[in-house]
Amino acid sequence: MPPPAPKPGVIPLKPLGLGDILGGAMSTIGRYKGPVMGLAAAVFGAYTLLIGIAIAVALSGVAEELGELADLADRPGTQEPEWHEIRPLIIAFVIVAAVALIGYVLAVATVQAAMLTVLQDAVLGRPATFGSVWRRTLPRVPALIGTSLLTGLIAMVPVLLALVFFSIGMVGASAGDDSDEVAGAYIGLGMLGFLVAFVPAIWLWVKFSLAPAAVVFEKQGPIRAMQRSSQLVRGRWWPVLGISMLATLIAGVTAGLIQQVLSVAGIFPAMAAAADLGTDPEFSEVLSVFSVYIVITMVGQLIGYLIQTTFPPLVNGLIYVDQRIRNENLAPVLAESAGLPPQPPAAPGF
Length: 350
Fold this sequence. Notes:
Oligomer: single chain
Domain DUF7847: 63-311
Structural class: mainly alpha
Transmembrane segments: 36-59, 89-119, 140-166, 186-217, 237-258, 286-307
Pfam family, one: DUF7847
InterPro entries: DUF7847
Number of domains: 3
Number of helices: 12
Protein name: DUF7847 domain-containing protein
C-alpha cells in the first residue's frame, strides 16, 4: 500500500477529490480567519461606506426636488411632474448606480485576488498576515479586473444571441394569428434558439473559469491567463463545472439563510415601534423607527458578500491546483516549496 500523500497545508499533495477541495476551502477559512474574513470585511465595509456616502450626497443634492415632488403628490388631482423636476433625480440615481457598480467590481476583484493569495500560503502551510496578503494582492487586481471583463464580454456574445432568439419567438407568438399551434411553434422555436445559444456561454464560462487563479498564482496577464485556463480545463470540463456550481450554490444558500434570519429578527422590533407612530408621522420619525432594521439588513448583506466572495474563489483556486497536479505533476514542486523531504518511490507492485 503506497504511503499517504504529504499534506503540508490544507490539502494533500495528490489529485484532489470533491471532499478534498471543499474541505480545503473550509480549512483555509478556518485557519486564516484574519486575512480571509478580515480583509474581505474591510473591503466590503469600505464599499458599503462608499455607497452610503454616495446616497447621502445624492439625497442632499436633490432634497429640494424631492420636496417639490412630495408637494405635488399632496395636491388634489393627478398632476404629472415636469421633466425639469425629475431630471435631477434621474441624474442622481445614475451617478449613485455608477459609483455602486464601479465600487462593486473593484471590491469583488480585490477580495478574489486576496483569497487566491491566501490560498498560496494555505496549500503550503505557511503563515499569512493581513498586511502581507494585502501587499501581494493589490498588484494583481488590475489584471484580474481585465480578465473578468474579457471573460464576461466573450461569454456575453452567445447570451445576447440567446436573448435575441427568445425575443423573436415571443414577438412572433404575439404578432401572429390567433392559432394556438402557431403561437406555440413560435415560442418553441424561440426557446430552442435560446438554449442553443445559451449553451456556448456556459461552455465558455467554464473554459475560462481558472483564469483568475492563473492571474494570481502565475502572475499572468488577462490573455495568457485565459489561455492557461483553457489548457487546464481541457478534458475535465464537467468536473470543473460541477464543483464550481456546487461551491456557488453552497455559498448562495448559506448567505441567503443568514440574511433571511437577520431580516426576520430585525423586522419585529421595527413593526412594534411603528405601531406607536400615529396616523401622520414625520419622515424623520419613520426613519428612526426603521433604522435598526436597516442596519441589521445591511449587516446581513455584508455577511452575504463575505460568504459569496470568499468560499467560491477558494474552491476555484483549489480546482486550479488540482488540475496542475493532474496535468503538470505539480505535487513534488509544492512539496519542495513547503520544505518537505523528497518522497521515496512506491515499492514495485504496490
